[in-house]
Amino acid sequence: MLDILPMLAAEIPNFAATLPLAFAGLGAGVGVGLVGGKAAEAVGRNPSAFGSIMVMAIIGMALAEAIAIYGLIIAFIK
Amino acid sequence: MACPKARRASALMQITAMLAAGELTVQANPLYPNLTWFTNSLLVTIIVTGLVVIWSRISTRHMEVVPKGNQNIFEALVETLYNLFEGVVGKHMIPKVFPLLATLFIFILAANWFGLVPGVGTIGFGKPGAGPLGLEEMHAPLLRAANADLNSTLGMALFFMLWWVIWTIQEVGVIGFLKDNFAPPGAVKGMLRIFLLPIFLFVGVTELISIAIRPVSLSLRLFGNIFAGETLLHTMSSLGSVLPIPLNWISAVLFPLPFYFLELLVGLLQAFVFAILCSVYIKLSTGGHGGEEGQPAH
Known about the structure:
The complex is a heterodimer. By secondary structure, chain A is mainly α. Chain A has helices at 4-11, 15-45, 50-77.
């Protein structure tokens, strides 16, 4: 099953630099979605806490998205 | 295109189309060949700092009890930031840390938004082409977003870490800092504590490594967001360059439009996240002990 990797590396020009970005993007998408969903649920339970929930949700999303940004930097630099 | 006005307008649009398709390098471009350290990002940093200082001086020139205009905006901004950071850091630390945190937020916000002004990143030096000011391809922009340079963000992150070390040692002392990281928690007593000591030594080393990674993650997050946004806008502008002439120019203006608003939001968000993360790091290391030690002195 893993012999697909050299085949992809032969086809796609910059595979070694863009494969980490693919996985990082997948992880970041799932992470940000989870944070957003939990935040929406928390606001539903306690609508008066909207301000502090929003602050914490924004922090969580930025931290989760940073991993994808690291992958993006590698893809740009190589 | 007989009349000169139409000819001038078409030449201008041609320049814009060619300029938008230039390339962006990861490193900032020096403006003079001999001085490699004076880059276009450094020039923008100086300009943004000057603008922020001038605006703040103008706002606070004739202070009135009931503010209006510039002073009102400035007071609202400072008061919001003060309440926000006080909620995180606590009343004891806030006088020491507020200047640095607020400056980081305001500077990063101004620098991010200045990079979206038309002309920043698109007007520059390169190989001359058609028209009096036209370029065939651009090698180096004259002005470039300040935080699209890793030097700038790394400098800010390292400066913050330096002050974090100073404030932590001032609050809890070197012994207290080592105890926070390396010793088992105080609730565990007696023989169990001696057994758990090697495990917590390992935990302490991991904790120190994660502290050392903080400037890396802070700087790379900001740099990656702003640089990727810049590249995204350039790519979107040059996406329709293979179309025939009127669609060429329309697409160069229309395609980046939604991403422009995204970049406005990202600029604000990244400034906010940088400052909030810095305040959270301060709170984590000075939180518990600093409050207790501060009480008897009052």
